[in-house]
């Protein structure tokens, strides 16, 4: 016959259980309280902060230390540091459950085939190279955010449930620092990189082809052409990038949707006058290219600040183009050089560069037309010669409406989940900077998402994205990927 339970013993067990339950409740409550105090929603346990925030930030920091200089961050195309970065990124791709390879332009690829390998693939990417004395978020954030989101899917066991292949590409060159030729990696994938680029050389005389061969990558003109992806195999391209401007910070929001990337023209202006002694040539008899150049630069500033005061509605410009310029036109003089450069000499020649960007290509052309005409008039009036050369042109890119809509919804959901509140609409921004999406738009439809950066500072060690904004970016990419299931 079974013995009767001891009632006092049962009471003790019940009391202890109540204490344990209270302690457990306290531990469960603490993260919720902390999340609320930080302006985060109460469902943070579903937001994978340990991967999308903590690990992503740690990896950004680790990658930010991979540099060709001990004093500052710099990784240029196929440098020793870039090769180390390639291997590091490849390891993180494999950690996310992706199949990896490095192509013959040094791009690092990580791919999962999903449920239907024959479906068109979604490409996600950004660049692993940097400018000189760079920040650690430009380019790298877009790569690592995508890998973090895919790693979450892999851990959840849903990576293989994606209805189309997803491929992350860390492009080998976007900044163009070493060879002064931007988009080497993405342009090769898009099939728009001229084969002649292989023979462009750096300041040390090393060619693009030579730099690749120094790292055991055998690239020829024939297999460069083979790097191009078949447009029929690609569904679209998405890129996440720091804003590099102050709009999101002013709006108080971590994410913004990009409506398009400004077209760009670079001019080289050479003004030739008469060289002379600074102290002996009377002012009225001078043909001074420096003074003329100063007037030309001020003309550029005035025209680009108030294009409506200079442009006329004729065959070169319409009212709609003038209106579009008002919100997107920016013009900059970046370099100035004189010959000879001496304090006691009137220079014989001045050369300066002009960078003109606008979202409307016809409007940009109208600005160049008007600027050139007025520059020639000023030079004629001052009796100096003026030569204007177009050194670079890139058409504006308009982001795809379908992809952008999905990305916008994902960004909205991310901000809502992290804040616990319904935000205003996600800001719609224009990109004044060039991105790999410009090259990839020649292959497929593109969309972009911007992430807030402190002070709008980029291309600088002061470049900074907060940990929670890295988290928001990761949640948005994850939400976007989940729409593919």
TrEMBL record:
EC number per UniProt: 3.5.3.9
GO BP terms: purine nucleobase metabolic process
GO molecular function, one term: allantoate deiminase activity
Domain Peptidase M20 dimerisation stretches: 263-375
Reaction catalyzed: allantoate + H2O + 2 H(+) = (S)-2-ureidoglycine + NH4(+) + CO2
Protein localization: Endoplasmic reticulum
Enzyme class: hydrolase
Keywords: Endoplasmic reticulum, Hydrolase, Manganese, Membrane, Metal-binding, Purine metabolism, Signal, Transmembrane, Transmembrane helix
Chain ranges passing through the membrane: 12-34
Family: Belongs to the peptidase M20A family.
PANTHER family documented for this protein: ALLANTOATE DEIMINASE-RELATED
Assembly: Homodimer.
Protein name: allantoate deiminase
């Amino acid at each position: 016959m079974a013995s009767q339970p001891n009632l006092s013993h049962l009471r003790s067990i019940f009391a202890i259980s109540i204490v344990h339950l209270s302690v457990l409740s306290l531990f469960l409550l603490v993260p919720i309280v902390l999340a609320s105090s930080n302006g985060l929603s109460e469902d943070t346990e579903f937001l994978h902060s340990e991967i999308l925030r903590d690990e992503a930030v740690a990896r950004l920091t680790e990658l930010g230390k991979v540099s060709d200089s001990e004093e500052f961050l710099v990784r240029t195309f196929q440098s020793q540091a870039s090769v180390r970065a390639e291997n590091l990124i490849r390891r993180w791709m494999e950690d996310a459950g992706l199949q990896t390879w490095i192509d013959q332009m040094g791009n690092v690829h990580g791919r999962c085939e999903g449920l239907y390998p024959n479906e068109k693939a979604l490409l996600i990417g950004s660049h692993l190279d940097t400018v000189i004395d760079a920040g650690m978020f430009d380019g790298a954030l877009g790569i690592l955010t995508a890998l973090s989101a895919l790693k979450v899917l892999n851990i959840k066991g849903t990576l293989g449930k994606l209805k189309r292949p997803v491929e992350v590409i860390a492009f080998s060159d976007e900044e163009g620092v070493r060879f002064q030729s931007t988009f080497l990696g993405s342009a090769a994938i898009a099939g728009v990189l001229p084969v002649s680029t292989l023979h462009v050389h750096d300041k040390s005389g090393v060619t693009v082809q030579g730099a690749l061969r120094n790292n055991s990558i055998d690239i020829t003109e024939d297999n460069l052409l083979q790097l191009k992806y078949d447009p029929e195999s690609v569904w679209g391209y998405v890129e996440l990038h720091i804003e590099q401007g102050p709009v999101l910070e002013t709006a108080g929001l971590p994410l913004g949707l990009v409506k398009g990337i400004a077209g760009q023209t670079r001019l080289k202006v050479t003004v030739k006058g008469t060289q002379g002694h600074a102290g002996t040539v009377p002012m009225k008899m001078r043909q001074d290219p420096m003074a003329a150049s100063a007037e030309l630069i001020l003309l550029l500033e005035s025209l680009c600040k108030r294009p409506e005061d200079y442009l006329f509605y004729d065959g070169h410009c319409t009212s709609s183009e003038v209106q579009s310029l008002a919100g997107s036109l920016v013009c900059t003089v970046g370099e100035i050089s004189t010959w000879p450069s001496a304090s006691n000499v009137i220079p014989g020649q001045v050369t300066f560069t002009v960078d003109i960007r606008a979202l409307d290509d016809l409007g940009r052309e109208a600005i160049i037309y008007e600027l050139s005409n007025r520059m020639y008039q000023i030079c004629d009036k001052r009796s100096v010669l003026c030569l204007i050369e177009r050194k670079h042109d890139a058409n504006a890119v308009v982001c795809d409406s379908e992809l952008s809509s999905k990305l916008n919804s994902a960004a909205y959901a991310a901000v809502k989940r992290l804040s616990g509140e319904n935000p205003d609409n996600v800001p719609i921004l224009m990109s004044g900077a060039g991105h790999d999406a410009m090259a990839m738009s020649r292959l497929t439809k593109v969309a972009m998402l911007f992430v807030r950066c402190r002070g709008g500072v980029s291309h600088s060690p002061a470049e900074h994205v907060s940990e929670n904004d890295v988290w928001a970016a990761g949640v948005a990419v994850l939400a976007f990927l989940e729409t593919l299931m």
